[in-house]
Structures are given as structure tokens and as C-alpha cells.
Amino acid sequence: MDILARNNVTVRGPEGAQPMVFAHGFGCDQSMWRHVAPGFADRYRVVTFDFVGGGGSDPAAYDADKYASLDGYRQDVLDVVRALDLRDVVLVGHSVAAMVGAMATIAEPDRFASLVMVGPSARYIDDEGYVGGFAREDIDELLESLASNYLGWSAAMAPAIVGNPDRPELGHELTEAFCRMDPDVARRFAEATFLSDNREDLPRVPVPTLVLQCREDVIAPMEVGEYVAEQVPDSTFVALEATGHCPQLSSPELTSDAIGAWLEGRVAA
Amino acid sequence: MLRVNATFLRWTARPLEAVVGRRLVDLLTPGGRIFHETHYAPMLRMQGSVHEIAVDLRCGDGSRLSVLLNATLTRDEHGAEREVLVAVFDATERRRYEQQLLRAHDEARAAEARAMTLARTLQQTLVPPVPPRVRGLTLAATYRPSGDGSQVGGDFYDVFPTGPDEQVVVLGDVSGKGVDAAVVTSLVRNTVRALAVLHHRPSSLLAELNDIVGFHETDRFCTVVILRMRREPDGAWRVVVAAGGHPPPLLLRPGSAPVEVDVNGPLVGILSDQEYTETELRLAPGEVLVLYTDGVTEARREGELFGEERLRATVGRLGAADVPGLVDGLRDEVVTYQDGVTHDDIAIVAVSAAPDDEPGPDLETG
Question: Are both B192 and B330 inside the same structural domain?
Fold first, then answer.
């Protein structure tokens, strides 16, 4: 199977440079990194991709059983890294992909040099002695919300997105698939994401890790990010002056600077 | 939120000061907040606008209001984000209707799954669960429903004893598909069993079956081939063959090409008072009789039939030595010929006299 086509892999930047792989979270696709990833392509071999089921990935490759848990998504990361035979990889994961990235570094420590977790959460649902920020009912409600929102999407959103005269810079091929997902795929991804519990993985992350935390992140609140940073052995916690769950969109410069500074050793661990 | 209108305050049952200065996401339900952060906000930033985002607002009185949001992000001349204009639509009725639609959709899916299970279960009653094991007889059978198996097909087969060292093998095809075809299939299969007690001769069994199916209230008819087999002391089987509108069985003798058994008769269940003929043959150890339905010969590839010639060639190539291999190989060949998408069900039964030295299992079939 052609992994590069399956995961709609894009590679930029100088050949032979250290690889930097960006993984998107639940909701959209690799275009989430459009304001951040290109900025690293002058000195890194920048790889972006779509998880199977999202964006421009191959719909035929979707396997409901495989992607019912985050293991399937971890496998996607490893598949991409192996297909390009990358080593010494800087892996940048947003939201659930931060945790998927952690799982990937644990599975194949030899391929990864460091991990950047943007807005991570090890578990979204509150547990005894642990605040995740959500109750089980909240997640059920999200699933309902997804069903309601995806109802009209498959048909209605595509023309709305493509025919957007205000932002002509949006690439046609990006917008067409942007945030679009088969409702069943979205539901399964949401379940895999928001019902996951990766707390036991954190102490096993074998590489230096940067935890980037936003202020006022309703999905991964401050204490959740702090918990991740506490549990990952070799970690650096940086609170960004950015709001919301997607700093790579709301504050791309801050996000890029924070990642760049850490990679270049300008932030003390 | 910088500014809101009076309608928004009335809908959300909140005073102005409880709204202005807070973020829209704060007024959403937890599930809506996740959706806001994973879909709404990224899309708004990337596209500059979003349409018809379905969320619930938490109102000051504790109730919830289902709304649709249209939002546009405005930017200043340098491209910096300035403000987001949000139009809120009360979607209470619409959401209720959507939920009914979703429920109906889920129910339809569940019903489809139940129908599929029902079809499979029903189908399983029309063929033996596993090919029966009969002393002195090597027997292999396969059944494959057409398409995705969501409909009960009309093909059936059966093998049952009528006495010590006496077996009846029957294979047939009821016209049509679905439940009423299954009713007739079941009728035919059970009637053959009952008639086998009364009629020693397959030809007279078929004649009476013809009348019974003809009198049945459905307008279904069927094709049937029937073997009455008796084991001889030397291990060979004496076989009497009769058929009604059915492709004749193939007889494969080692070292020669397969030949059709010369037997045929009228379709079963159309005209009353039909006469059927029969042919008798001896099936020596190592020789194979292959019974099949027209799902084999009438399989199509770009309009071209699989056909009898290809069937004989395939059976000849697969050979008599491995009876289960012959049946499975033939089925696979026919399925592959149609690129895996079968339009008719396929039933194949092959019988062979087991060699004398083969310790056949001593159980009778049921």
C-alpha cells in the first residue's frame, strides 16, 4: 500500500535536514498546520499528513475496527515515518495527536528525537483524583452535536467552503476536504479521542518533550496540560499567551516561536 | 462578546452584563464547546466564515436553546482579526425534526441489519449447516448467496437417508428471491423429504412434487435435480437421476472429460400432470457427480456467460481426486469470473463413491 497517498503526505524543506512531522487532531486535517509548518521548512524536512478518515486521505483505507482506538492513529504516524524512513524525528502533535504522538515515540523510540505536544490531554473525562474537564454525559452530548452538525455537511458544506470569495488564498484542494469527514468516521474518532485514557503512557515517553499550553483552553485546561508535563519525564511546560484550543491558528507566530525556541535550546528544561 | 441584541438576551434569558465580556464558547454546553474548539473556531479562522453550525446555548434560567450559528470573521487592512459577526437562529423546531430524522435513520439501519440477519438465518435453514457425512460417500457442498446476502436466495440442497446404504441427494432453484421464494424453497425441501418415503422412483417423486408446488398459492416454480443412491457391496453406488427443468449433473470419470448425465424433464410447479423420466448409472469409486444451479452457468462477465463449456473445462481441470477442492474451486472460479459480485446465488453439490479402504464415518445424516 502506498502510505504517502493513503495519508495524503506532503513533504517540504531541504533533503537531509532533520525531519519534523506535524500531526493534526480531531476535527480537521493537516491544513491546521498551514500557518506554522511552512515556517520550519527552511531548516527542517517538514512532513504533514492527514490521518486516515480525514482530509485528503484514502477513504478506502478506513477500517472501522482499526480506528476505533487511538492505536490505529498511532499506527498511521508510524507508517508515515517508516514509509519515508525518517529518523531523529521532531514530532509535533496537536490535541489528541499529541497523545497519539506520545504513543508513537513509546512504540518506536529509535525514530524520534523529540516531541511537541500542543494542547494535550491524557484523559478528557474526570476521574477520581483527576480533573479532565468533562463528564461522560458531556461526551455523549458532543457525539449528538456531531451527528447534528454532520447531518447537512457532506452535501452542504463543500460548496460553501469552495465558493468562498473572501479568502481566495485558500487552496481549492484543501478547502474541498477541510474539516469534512464521514459522520461515522467522525463519531468513531470522537469516541476514540474523548473516551481515551493515556495517563499510564506519559511516564513512558522516552524523548524530550515540550508541552504547549494555551490560556483559556476549554478542551485541555491549564491543569490538564500541567499534569501532562508533570508526568512526562523529560518535559518542558510553556504556557502560551494564546486563547482557545488551536494556537497554531489563533496565534501562529507565538506557537512557531515557542516551538522553534525550544528546539534550538533557548528554553531551559 | 462585544455587542448583542435584545433578542439574544431574551432567548438566553440573561442580562446584558452576564453576556458582554464573556466568550461565546462559555455559553455553550460542554459537548458544544468541544465542537466549537475542534470545528467552529478552526473553520472560522481558515475560511473566514462558517454556516449553520448546530449548537445548544445554555440559558440563564437553566434551559437550553438549540440554535444555528452563521459567523463571519472580519479583518482590518493588515489582515489582523477584528471581530466576528454571528447571526443566531432559533433552531428548536429544526433540531427536533433533525433528531427525528436521525432516529429514523438509525432505526432504518437497525432494521436493515435485522433483515440481513433474518435472511441469513432463514437461508441457513434451507441448506444443511454442514455437508452431511455418509458412510461410503464423499460429499461436498457449497452455497453462496448473491450480492451482499441481504436477500434469501432460492437455491437449496439436501442430503438425507432413506434406508441403510440409501441416500437421496436433491438440489434445486426456486424462481425469485425473498421471503415468498423462501416459503416455497422450504416447502419443496420438506416435501421432497416426505415424498421420498412414498416414492421410490425419483421420476414419480418429481411428478407429485410438481402438483404440490403447482397447487400452492404462490406463482413460484422451481427446477430440481434428484439422485436416489444405493450403495453396492463393492463400494460403488447405483444412482437413479431425475430432473425437472434443471441443468443435468456432470459425471466426471478419472482420465476422461466430464459429461452431462442425459436426463431432463419439465419445470416443477407450472403445468399439472407432468411426466418425468429418469436415468440410472453406476458411480464407481473415484468417480464424481457434480450438481449445480444456474448461478454457475449463467454467471456473466461483460455480458458473456460462464457457460457449460467453461464449466466442463473447469471441472475437468480441478479433477475428481479432491471432491471438496473441486466444489470450492468451481465456486471460486465462478465468483472470480464475476469479479466477486455475484448476481445470482450459487449452489454446488458433488458426490463421489469413497474408496473401499476409506473408513467412512458411521453416522447417518439428518
Answer: yes
A146: nearest CA partner in chain B: B35
Q: What is the pLDDT of residue B356?
A: 55
- Output the domain CATH number for residue A49: 3.40.50.1820
Work out the pLDDT band at A266, boundaries 50, 70, 90.
Answer: low
Number of domains in chain A: 1
Of the ranges A29-33, A92-96, B86-90, B119-123, which one carries the lowest mean pLDDT score?
B119-123
Return the closest-CA partner of residue B38 out of A159, A78, A124: A124
Q: Are A242 and A215 in contact (CB under 8 A)?
A: yes
Cell reading at A16: 537531509
Torsion of CA B211, B217, B218, B222, to 10 degrees: -10
B196 within some domain: yes
Strands B64-75 and B81-90: antiparallel
Banded model confidence at residue B362, pLDDT cuts 50, 70, 90: very low
Chain B positions touching chain A (beta carbons under 8 Å): 23, 25, 29-39, 41-43, 45-49, 51-56, 95, 98-99, 101-102
Mutate to test the interface with B, among A94, A137, A149, A195 (most CBs of B within 10 A): A149
Q: Report chain B residues whose CB lies below 8 A from the CB of A140.
A: 31
| ipTM of the complex in this document | 0.82
Residues B42 and B140 in one domain: no
Mutation target vs B (from A173, A214, A218; most B CBs, 10 A cutoff): A218
Looking at B35-44, B262-271, B286-295, which range is the least confident one?
A: B35-44
- Which residue has cell 491524557? A122
Nearest beta carbon to residue A148 from set B34, B48, B54: B54
On the question of pLDDT at A267 being above 70, the answer is: no
Residue A194 contacts B where some CB pair is shorter than 8 Å: yes
Q: Are residues B38 and B144 in the same domain?
A: no
Determine whether A114 is exposed, middle or buried from the number of CB atoms within 10 Å of its CB (0-12, 13-18, 19+). buried
pLDDT band of A224, cuts 50, 70, 90: very high
